[in-house]
Design brief:
This protein has about 230 residues and is of the alpha/beta class. The protein is about 30% helix and about 20% strand. It is built from seven helices and eight strands, in the order βαβαβαβαββαβαβα. It has helices at about 15-25, 50-60, 75-80, 95-105, 150-165, 180-190, 210-220, and strands at about 5, 30-35, 65-70, 85-90, 110-115, 135, 170-175, 195. It has an eight-stranded parallel β-sheet. Helix 6 (about 180-190) links the parallel strand 7 and strand 8. Helix 2 packs parallel to helix 3. The longest helix is centred in the last third of the chain and has 13 residues, at about 150-165. It is globular, with a radius of gyration of 16 Å. The chain binds D-xylitol-5-phosphate.
Length: about 230
């Protein structure tokens, strides 16, 4: 499965967002990761559905919406209006995740379910077949610039094996402090989509184009399947 890079736009210079988007397009990133927060599921607020729709309208790069909200079923219409390619919600945030996954799939979106670091892989047992991808948080959700939680690596491998049992094609996304080193280790354990934040693409003193190229080059040495 190709390794895809998804810069997290909450880490971009929001006063120069159009410029940063153009630089990331030039670097040929694979998708833009858009964090939507509600101040409840996580104690923070990030980007809005309205801004996401404006971004979708001005770029050819597909958008990956990430819902860090309580009761995400409240936002189905807002998700539909964005024009994103994919959306993920947290399994800890809703009481009916299978119904929600099916409703979002009816919007012709790639649908993913996200797990907080302490949520076991077994939580996916009955929903993995309903989704196109799984997102494993490698930090507690809500803030950029945190430290990677190493014990999650074992869960990356377990979920990779679980997804492969349904046949090829289900992607495994990871998010949180993905430096080239941690990202390479996640790839080696089976990850295929890397949310890139302040420790990879949005690094102080490094322009976005160079940071993307450097990140992708360092990943290419990752030993897959160790
Ligand atoms: C945190 C967000 C991440 C964050 C990544 O909850 O979901 O996307 O922006 O930033 P770093 O790479 O700095 O952890």
């Amino acid at each position: 499965m190709p390794i895809r890079i998804a810069p997290s736009l909450m880490c971009a210079d929001l006063l120069e967002l159009a410029r940063d988007i153009a630089e990331l397009e030039r670097a040929e990133v694979d998708m833009f990761h858009i964090d939507i927060m509600d101040g409840h599921f996580v104690p923070n607020l990030a980007l809005s559905f309205e801004l996401a729709a404006k971004i979708a309208a001005c770029t050819r790069i597909p958008l990956d919406l990430r819902l860090m909200v309580d009761h995400p079923e409240r936002f189905i219409d807002a998700v539909r209006r964005v024009g994103a390619a994919s959306v993920s919600f947290h399994i800890e945030s809703t009481t009916n995740p299978i119904r929600l996954a099916r409703t979002l799939k009816d919007l012709s979106l790639q649908v993913g379910v996200a797990l907080n670091p302490s949520t076991p892989a077994e939580a996916l047992t009955y929903i993995a077949q309903e989704v196109d991808f799984v997102l494993l948080m490698t930090v507690e959700p809500g803030f950029a610039g945190q430290k990677f939680i190493p014990q999650v690596l074992g869960k990356v491998r377990a979920v990779r094996q679980m997804l492969d049992s349904f046949g090829p094609g289900k992607a495994l996304q990871v998010d949180g402090n993905l430096s080239a080193e941690w990202a390479s280790r996640c790839v080696a354990h089976g990850a295929s989509i890397l949310v890139a934040g302040t420790s990879s693409v949005f690094r102080d003193g490094v322009d976005l184009y160079t940071a993307c190229r450097d990140f992708r080059a360092r990943l290419s040495h990752a030993d897959r399947g160790v």
